Amino acid sequence: MLTVTEMMASGIAILLFMVLFLGVARGLAKRSERAEQRRIDTEEQAKQAEAERVRAHKEKIALADNGHLPTQLALAKMSEAKQPKEAIYWYEKAAEQDSIEGIEGILRVCRQTNDELISQDKHRYWTNAYDAHHGDEQAVYEQGIALFEGFGIASNMDKGIQLIEHAANKRCVRAQMFLAQWYRSPENPMADKEKAQMWEGMAERINLDGESK
């Protein structure tokens, strides 16, 4: 039979065990609460980061749509690997501002994919624009004709004539003959017989010299 001392010792031991158990249980509960709070905080931070990313991207889109060239190029470059159509869209926006980086981007993305991302006329136009940038006067003429007629690009007759005249001044006979016909055309509101004769005369002199282009 247990003595009073032994009973007291057993009671104290049981009490200490219960205190220890409750302490451990309380500690585990607090640890679980902290872990749950960290999870909630992490999710909230991720949501805020995603919302900020979406907001910043929308700002970039708006800026690019308003013609900001560096942003257009940045969006295009970011889209090249996984969204080639998106990349082409922004490179074209840049190329339409006579950006050689935009033109090079269009041609590069087209080379990197088997998909027909742009029409053949449009691809030809940007190829000519690239060659024209690097001094090919025949390409300048072809680019001008495409703009004049609206082949592969929105028609811009004024810019087309400017490019054709540039090529003609560089002794491109095809450009000179086109201008001679254009300045005689009844469809030209700026028809000018003297200009027509001037361009025709320049073409004839070059042909006589045997230096036609």
UniProtKB/TrEMBL annotation:
Q: Does the entry feature the keyword Coiled coil, yes or no?
A: yes
* UniProt keyword Coiled coil, yes or no: yes
Matching Gene3D superfamilies: Tetratricopeptide repeat domain (1.25.40.10)
List keywords of the entry alphabetically: Coiled coil
Coiled-coil stretches are 25-60
In its UniProt entry, what is this protein called?
Sel1 repeat family protein
Its taxonomic placement starts with: Bacteria, Pseudomonadati, Pseudomonadota, Gammaproteobacteria, Vibrionales
